[in-house]
Amino acid sequence: MPAEKRFVARQKRRLRIRFGASENELERIAHCADVSPTGFFVACRTVADTGSFLWFQMDLPDGEILIHGEVIWQKHVDRELWRVEASGFGVKIHQAPEQWYQFFLALDDPNTPPDQQASA
């Protein structure tokens, strides 16, 4: 998604993520490559269909959270380019717990200890 379509800038963060069609079927494992309060990019080799509604279990520094979101766009990259270009999909958050927003706010706070922030 071109940056000019975003209302909030994303920040590069690598977070472990599990996702699937329901809260009880989080079978796929991937990672987030960047995050914002309203969405994130899931880096994975097999992309989800645009328009899909999925559940995401995300590992934050203070524990796991569950997020519900919609796949807004996808980018499939051929296997030969995986080392230089990320394959995956962009998610628009429809439902997230307060911890998600607190996590994002802490990324900009210079007083937040490094062990409380996700690694870049």
SSE topology sketch:
Blueprint: E1 11-20, E2 28-36, E3 39-43, E4 53-60, E5 63-75, E6 88-95, H1 98-107
Antiparallel strand pairs: 1-2, 1-4, 2-3, 3-6, 4-5, 5-6
The Cα radius of gyration reads: 14 Å
Strand arrangement across the biggest beta sheet: 1-2-3-6-5-4
Structural class: mainly beta
Overall tally of domains: 1
- Mean pLDDT reading: 82
So what's the overall shape? globular
The CATH class: Mainly Beta
- Which blocks of ≥5 consecutive residues have pLDDT under 50? 111-120
The CATH superfamily is predicted glycosyltransferase like domains
Q: Distance between termini?
A: 21 Å
Helix content: under 10%
Instruction: Indicate the proportion of strand residues.
Output: 35-45%
- The helix-strand sequence is EEEEEEH
Largest sheet: 6 strands, antiparallel, barrel
Tally the beta strands.
Answer: 6
CATH fold description:
Thrombin, subunit H
CATH architecture: Beta Barrel
Query: With helices defined by DSSP (H or I, 4 residues minimum), what is the helix count?
Result: 1
Protein architecture, described:
- The chain is mainly beta.
- It has one domain (8-108): Beta Barrel (Thrombin, subunit H), CATH 2.40.10.
- Helices cover 8% and strands 44% of the residues.
- It contains 1 helix and 6 strands; from the N terminus they run E-E-E-E-E-E-H.
- The radius of gyration is 14 Å and the shape is globular.
